[in-house]
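Hi, here's the filled form for the chain we discussed.

Project: internal
Contact: R.S.
Residues: 179
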Amino acid sequence: MIGLAASSGLRIGEVVGLDRGDVDLKTGMLLIRQSKFGKSRLVPLHSTTLDFLRKYAAVRDASFPDCKEAAFFIHSGQRRYARNTLQRVFAGLAFRAGLRGPKGRGPTFHDLRHRFAVKCLVTWYKAGIDVQGMLPALATYMGHVHYTDTAYYLTATAELLALAAERYQNWLDQGEVVS
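And the returned structure, exactly as it came back:
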């Protein structure tokens, strides 16, 4: 669930809300039903993410062959995960990894959505793609109606700022943006 969110930018409610029929293991397409503001959308997955989902589904089905739960992701009780359970699991993993202290703020599940958005921009900068032109696609992929909703997730990381500065410097040096 964490890997899916990190590689796709899904909201926690979208991850735990996935039913078996929402995950097309042949085409790598997710159907996100009635998400924020009651909207639904299709989300294509990277082939590596799809491979992991296929492996998970095979292990899940072998471990619980008689499970009738509609949820794609289930816990050992053969039931759908609750959002707060997944948040607690994530916080516990972050603590064990040394990314969170016993008190105070540390990484949250929602931070995976921020990381996804920034990683998209970094990838596009490195590929020489028109980042500004791709922002509407990113907004649609993340389930946003307005670009300003997506902009909230675009945290200025050192890597992103360095790439933007490099592109700007190329423009100054050559009078045009160089990919």
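Let me know if anything looks off before we file it.
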